[in-house]
Amino acid sequence: MLLSVIIPVYNVEPYIERCLRSVINQADPNEVEVILVDDCGNDNSMGVVHQVANGHPNGGIVRIIRHERNQGLSAARNTGLSVAKGTYVWFVDSDDWIKENYLQYLSDILHEQELDICLFSAADCFAEQCIQRFSYPELAGQRVEGKYFIVHRKVQVCVPFSIYKRSFLLDNQLKFKVGIYHEDVEFSLRAFYFAKRVTYINEILYFYYQNPASITQTINPKKSFDNIVVAESLYEFSKSYVEQQYLSFFYNYISLAINEALHGFYKIKDPSVKKEWEKKIFERKHLITVLSKSSIVKYRVEGVLFKICNRYIAVYRLLQLFNKKTYLKILKKNKMSIR
């Protein structure tokens, strides 16, 4: 078995057929298995799954694993990984889809190269159009260390944009942190740091549906604080595993997680909630030192200002106002308009 495609399923009735068909329509039954993890939703997603699998010639490659209760995306992926048989695993989200007739192409690459990670380009898909998210033509076809992507800020933290060697994940104890949002960031940075052999395909093989109902499209305090949890986890990882020459580059991603958290807190209207979450950030003052050690000037400036003034959200708000005014001046000078 070459490839295990792992698809968590939770309340995705309108999308799961498109996702599943995009995989089994082109799959080689001798090389690919599709593991659907039923995470106990309350719609007819699994009814659609059974209908598609039972009516398709490749339906036999579909395996269904059911949780006893809803456990979330991370747990569903971990469950799929624990039962996977493929040499490689691909974590596909159930409201997305993959490019037609490309599994054979991927199979050839995976057969020919001993890879830890195979990264490829992806597109963000809206109601009427799909837009390529990133492109690294200079890396196409090369095989490099995962650290290269960290140093050059090219890590794509969205997990479905990569295929992983299963033994690489198991040997490095790479599982998804359960119970948090932004689990992809925490997982991907650890994976790319450990990876010795990474190749990049400069073609759009994955289509990421921008679902307005998705958890990634909503704002709530837990999502913001989970960015701090991610930063804390990566900080602990950096102390144990990251070599000195890579620390400042690794800190860039931790600093980004801190900024994402502050941006979320900045948007929350309830002052009591802001105060509660700011207190929790303050309890992790050691993370502020990471900002000042980043290789990016913006983060180093933030680190200095946050150290001087402990009111992090207030300082962040002022920085946002400054950034906006500076941006508007640049646009005016160049006679550009804001879309």
List the keywords.
339 residues, alpha/beta, Spore Coat Polysaccharide Biosynthesis Protein SpsA, Chain A, 2 domains, 10-stranded mixed β-sheet, 13 helices, 48% helix, disordered C terminus
Provide an overview of this structure.
The protein is globular. It is an alpha/beta fold and 339 residues long. The protein folds into two domains: 3-216, Spore Coat Polysaccharide Biosynthesis Protein SpsA, Chain A; 219-333, no CATH class. The protein has helices at residues 16-24, 45-54, 73-83, 103-112, 146-151, 166-171, 183-194, 221-241, 244-267, 271-282, 286-292, 297-308, 312-333; strands at residues 3-9, 32-38, 62-66, 88-91, 97-98, 117-125, 130-132, 143-144, 162-165, 198-209. The chain contains 13 helices and ten strands. The model is unreliable at 334-339 (pLDDT under 50). β1, α1 and β2 form a beta-alpha-beta unit.
